[in-house]
Amino acid sequence: DAGVTQSPTHLIKTRGQQVTLRCSPKSGHDTVSWYQQALGQGPQFIFQYYEEEERQRGNFPDRFSGHQFPNYSSELNVNALLLGDSALYLCASSLDGIPVVSYEQYFGPGTRLTVT
Amino acid sequence: RKEVEQDPGPFNVPEGATVAFNCTYSNSASQSFFWYRQDCRKEPKLLMSVYSSGNEDGRFTAQLNRASQYISLLIRDSKLSDSATYLCVVSRVSNTGKLIFGQGTTLQVKP
Fold it and tell me: Using the beta-carbon criterion (under 8 Å), do B103 and A40 form an inter-chain contact?
C-alpha cells in the first residue's frame, strides 16, 4: 500500500521565480492538504483540496495556489518566490467523511524548498 | 498569541527517565486533539489521539483537560529511540481537516 508521495524532494529556486510541487495521496484517500513548515516551527496549514476544489484556506497570500486532479493527486504552486518561502512543504492526505474524532492525516516526506 | 503553545525545550533526559510535555490551546471550539512525532528532517507521524478520558499506548499516556484547554503527553521509561520532536495538534469540527500545530517540543534521550 503506497503512502503519500511528493516530488521533488529538494528544490533550489531564485527570488521571483515560480515553483510547482506535486503530491500523490495515500491509496484510497480523496482529500489533500498542504502545509508549510519553517525551520524550528510546526507545520502551518496552507489549503485543502477535495473534489478538485479548494475547500479551506489558511492565512497565505494569493501567490500560493493549488490544484487537485481527478485521480486525487495535487499540485502546489508558488509565484514570485520570496526568501521567506524557504521551508519544508508537506502534503497530507485523508479520507473525507470519517468521524472527526478518529480523523487522521497521513503526511508525505515533504519537499524542501530553498529560495536564494 | 499562537493558537497552540508548547515549550520548545529541548528536554535532555537519561534513558529510563519519565518525561512530560505540556501544551495549551486558545480556541475553545477545538474538538480533536493529537500528538504527532517528527524525526529530524522527516514528516510528522501520528503518535496518538487524545481523549477527555485520557488514553494510554504502552509507555505513552495522553491527557486532555478541556476546562483548562490543556493537553499533556507522558513518556515513561524513555528509550534512545524516543528522541524526536513532539508536536501538539488540534483540529476544529467546523474546519474539516485543518490541523493546527504547536511549535513542537524537542526530546533528546541520552544513554
Answer: yes
